[in-house]
Amino acid sequence: MSRVSDRTRGVSPVIGVVILVGIVAILAATIGVFALGFSDQQPTQAPQVAIVADYSERTTGNGEYLNLSFSSGETVYRDNLSVVMSGAKRSDGSDVTLDTDPIQAQASTQITSGTQITIHQGQFTGIGSGEHLDLSDATLRLVWNPADEQESETYVIYRWPDPSQRN
């Protein structure tokens, strides 16, 4: 036998072992993913809704108000939505707090196209007689929380005013 054939003979088993180890590693990773259930964990999708806000400055005797009209999109359940408002003030500049959730008080169980919600002075604590609600620096967020999943995240599905349009 020649020397050349002796050298090439050992290369074939080394390549075979490397390929076999690679295949075993890929199979182990694939089985591990399915065994640990990573494929079952898909993020919850927040509902897509279109909301039109009608903000009126001091057009009523009680001060400003904000109408939210659900114009289109998916059906959302009232119990999954909440209103978070910050920056609302009374006419003298003092902070006021949203006392009742307008969604829970005004909407039916299923919120669909055509549903309207009004946010007004009567829903805030800290506004005395003769004072008015001031929403000029307020920020409103509609927060959606999927009720069926305890460890799921909450999502802001609507923000007023649009941050890009804030002065």
TrEMBL record:
<protein>
    <submittedName>
        <fullName>Type IV pilin N-terminal domain-containing protein</fullName>
    </submittedName>
</protein>
<feature type="transmembrane region" description="Helical">
    <location>
        <begin position="12"/>
        <end position="38"/>
    </location>
</feature>
<dbReference type="InterPro" id="IPR012859">
    <property type="entry name" value="Pilin_N_archaeal"/>
</dbReference>
<keyword id="KW-0812">Transmembrane</keyword>
<keyword id="KW-1133">Transmembrane helix</keyword>
<dbReference type="Pfam" id="PF07790">
    <property type="entry name" value="Pilin_N"/>
</dbReference>
<keyword id="KW-0472">Membrane</keyword>
<feature type="domain" description="Archaeal Type IV pilin N-terminal">
    <location>
        <begin position="9"/>
        <end position="88"/>
    </location>
</feature>
<dbReference type="InterPro" id="IPR013373">
    <property type="entry name" value="Flagellin/pilin_N_arc"/>
</dbReference>
